[in-house]
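input
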Amino acid sequence: MILDLVNYAFVAILVGICFAWVVLIRSMADSFRHTPVLDKFDARPHDTPRVSIILPARNEEGFIAKCLDSLISQDYTNYEIIAIDDSSEDSTGEIISKYAEKNSKVIHVSAGPKPEGWMGKNWACTEGYKKATGQLLLFTDADTKFEKNVMSLAVSHLESAGLDALTVIPKMICLDIWTKITLPVISTFLHTRFSAIRVNDPTKKTGYFFGSFFIIRKTTYDSVGTHEGVKHEIIEDGALGKKVKEGGFRMKMVRGDHLIEAVWARDWSTLWNALKRLMIPLFLQNGKIAVGIFFAVLFLLFMPYVFLAYSIPFATSSASFSAVFASSAVSSALLFSACVVDARALQIKMRHAICAPLGSLVVVGGFLVGLIQAKRSSAVSWRGRTYSMKDHSPDFINV
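output
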């Protein structure tokens, strides 16, 4: 009798999970259908304002050259590339210097020592901004590559639509197996809270930038406090996008996965720290709500598989076990299907997509470790630096 009651409690939970995944899949479908595209807009006559590309780089010797090559090849004419060496411990600074010697568009900036309380990338962006002469600022990452017409399209889209800021969703490149099986799991949530539909809706509070590509008017950037206003934010692009939206400025998110490629995570270490970065700011804002979010993610992303494994051996032994088996099978199928569909959209091969259960376990594990380590003096390691977040109150998302 007690076991039956427990099983029916599991069934109630699984029915809720099924409902949640129906909503999430519908949201994903809407996102696929309705997200605008960078090169599809009503073009109008406009000037060619000067663009300052701000490119922070720390320990990027394996990526910076390809990025600079793709930026130098842009068909837009009025721009400069401000490449900032953020105290790199490899040959990044030397590579930038050689490019600056050969091409007058490239301006080599050596960032000074990072001040206390700053995140490294935010400090490097600020150092680069001091050298900018453009009316428009284009922020990108050193592991990003661009088709030659991306800047022309971005400026034309921004000017034609009368926007203050434009961010582009790139094609996410995964360099190892762990990121390939994990990214589809994470990406399912990007189609909900941080979808282009919400960002582009002026009645919604959601604002978000992809750090690999966002272009913003200098006056807007100044108005929201520049990167100095988000200096302690570990997810600075999200925090800056949020400030732009809250400031009442016109911003837009578009797809550009056929025009821009960006590396999401490079290996197990960067993946693990990326997952921790997502949870730590939430915990530091509100620990109880963050713990609640963790358990919601646990039940949405992983527990359907656990309940399915639990019920299979006893599926025909009683009505309650049959109900657990049926509801867990449906919820597992919905979860797995969502990950497979997202993997296709991300152009990840099917052999990696079928590892979705393992990807779910990695995500849940990374989130759990983020909660546990949130207040440690070295909560996150990123580009050769360790950061403590315990003295800061992150603001990239309202929990």
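quick obs: Residues 38-170+210-264 form a domain with the Spore Coat Polysaccharide Biosynthesis Protein SpsA; Chain A fold (CATH 3.90.550.10).
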